[in-house]
Design goal:
single chain, alpha+beta, Heat Shock Protein 90, 2 domains, five-stranded mixed sheet, two-stranded antiparallel sheet, 5 helices, 50% helix
């Protein structure tokens, strides 16, 4: 029975890799050809033709982004974590620089407390999780989003981090679904993405023997919590 389950998992993983590879190659080709078309024949194209080319570039870039998200999700699930001492303060310093253009353009404050600790964990995975939480706040906080606040507390078993925003919030009935694969908070086409960001955060939490959850109300902002176990110090890898 266990062997059958493992075989199915391997089949699904191989299928996902194959699909992402098969999508990536033509998307790269489409992007390159359209870019070349604009560069060599842009002067003879009318405004409508240029607009169509720009739309093709935008769509093919989005396909590439989604393929990368799928590959990231698979890698997060399959690769054992690499334990090291990680400065969460340094992670947020790096992320502040990364998100600075978007924060400045929208005049959003990112408030990071001085007491962020060093923890035992996988730095690339933790960076990815916090990046996705910040990206989620920026994408779904709404036009009146003003602040994103980072918080930290601990108990005997866990480090608990929070990413709190003063955005539009989430309806309570959506709490269970938002961490599911391919689920999007906004079902319209206004916001790009394939709905994998929070799923990846959930996988990172699992790898660190922790959890992720949200507290929110429509119109009152959202707070996402990420917990990681404090007892990873003696572990070389965690496979779930």
């Amino acid at each position: 029975k266990l062997t059958e389950v493992e075989e199915k998992k391997q089949t699904i993983k191989f299928f996902a890799y194959s699909v992402s590879h098969d999508l990536k190659s033509p998307a790269i080709g489409l992007y390159g050809l359209t870019e070349r078309l604009l560069r060599q024949y842009g002067e003879v194209l009318d405004e409508k033709g240029k607009h169509y080319c720009e739309q093709i570039l935008k769509t093919s870039a989005e396909i590439l982004s989604q393929v990368e998200q799928i590959n990231t999700y698979i890698a997060t699930r399959e690769i054992p974590i690499r334990i090291e001492l990680v400065s969460i303060k340094e992670i947020f310093a790096e992320l502040r620089e990364e998100f600075y253009p978007a924060l400045r353009q929208r005049q959003i404050k990112l408030l990071v407390p001085p007491n962020l600790p060093k923890v035992v964990g996988d730095k690339p995975l933790l960076t990815r999780a916090f990046r996705n939480l910040l990206d989620n706040a920026l994408k779904y906080g709404g036009v009146n989003l003003n602040e994103i606040r980072i918080g930290y507390k601990k108990n005997d078993c866990y480090h608990i981090f929070s990413v709190d925003d003063d955005g539009i919030g989430i309806e309570q009935e959506g709490f269970e679904k938002i961490f599911n694969l391919f689920h999007r908070l906004d079902t319209s086409n206004r916001i790009q993405g394939c709905g994998m960001g929070l799923t990846i955060v959930k996988e990172v939490a699992k790898k660190h023997l922790g959890d992720v959850w949200v507290e929110s109300a429509a119109g009152s902002g959202s707070t996402f919590y990420l917990s990681i176990a404090r007892n990873l110090v003696s572990m070389e890898s965690v496979e779930l």
